[in-house]
Amino acid sequence: MNPFATLIFSSRDKLEDEIARQTSEACEQIIAEMGAELHDDLIQKLSIFRLYMDRLERSVHYPAEVEALLLKMRGDFQEVVESVRKISRQLLPVRMEDDSFQTGLELLCQNMGRSGTEHIHFESSGVEQKIPALSETYLYRVVQELIHNAFKHSAAWHIWVRLTWSTGKLLLEVEDDGTGFHKINEFIGRLRKKHNTLRMRTKVIGASISYHQGQKGLLARVEYSF
What we know:
alpha+beta; Heat Shock Protein 90; 2 domains; 6 helices; elongated
């Protein structure tokens, strides 16, 4: 075989192997995070209900104690419902079939924030344009992961999600007010070297993601042309 052709096939095989490796690592990371969510949050909350049942059996002759337990169970059950909703939002987009991409992102921001503790502010400018379905899904997931990371790793209280539409282009920004502002340059340096799911998803649809120092914390900027 021609040495040049051998080199091409070898390079292609290496590229395919690298893509397969990164994809596998990304899937394993997602599975691990979902497992942690189920074990540390949902399963622990459900386990408490077994204790409630035992206490109810022992308190059957004490109506006042039964009523107090039922009130507590109602409150804890609502937390279980919220945990299930949180996990379902990570698995499936919240947008309805007739919703636009922009409306879906706005709903995502409303659902991922927690009243009184975490606030997500959504802004948009320009006229929304139709983009391919695959790009909608990947950009949605990118925003979802950026919000999740800001709350989890930056201890942010406020997150701003901004969409700027222009002809054939979309600029998408996610900015937080995380507490690690004094180490922001070091943090940005690490992010620029990482080949994570954020970079993989943007690359698939021909978009780019970059990180900058915002007014109060980290600013992630996604640029997409269509």
